[in-house]
Amino acid sequence: MNGAAPPRRTVLKRALGGLSGLLGLTGAGPSQGAPATPAALDAVLHDLTARGLMLPATAADPTWMDDWRWLVGAPRQLLRVSALGDALLTERDGAALWWLDTQGGTLVRVADSPAALAQRLTDPEFVDDRFMPDAVADLRAAGLRLGPRQVYALKTPMVLGGRFERDNIEVSDAAVSFSLLGQIHAQVHDLPPGTPIRSLKLRPR
User: N or C: lower Cβ tally within 10 Å for the chain?
Assistant: First the structure.
């Protein structure tokens, strides 16, 4: 297994799953809810949720970011979660919005305001890149349906050599997915590309 995750969505995405059973990880407690969103953005997010591309707003639990604080910092709050286990975050003042790619272990600024993000989310290319609607539709058609606090994940994360292939995809508890991937990326993000990953210290959720 080699260090350094592949670039964002130059390759297909997604991570996690099978390691959760091996590590005995379990889900988090009740959701504390997501920050409020302006009406225009909320309408677009509602549409993405109805299409199965995002988890319900009530499912976004701030504690899911605990193992990503090394990357996202304290000021950013979890807003919504995609079906593929990525996260949309907002600044505490509600201005800039950020996208956490849990597969690639990267955080990018995607909009300077809620209105700007609402506009971007009407761009089919942006939606295809971030949410992979065709892949999600195929998974749903294959019988893989998500509960309100579940995401699609890879049994072997891409950072550990896994591929975005049907046999490597499963439904995973979102809390477990965020925790495990956050811990893995925290330990490998400074490694030069190609560095063998001989061991990881993972803490149960």
Answer: N
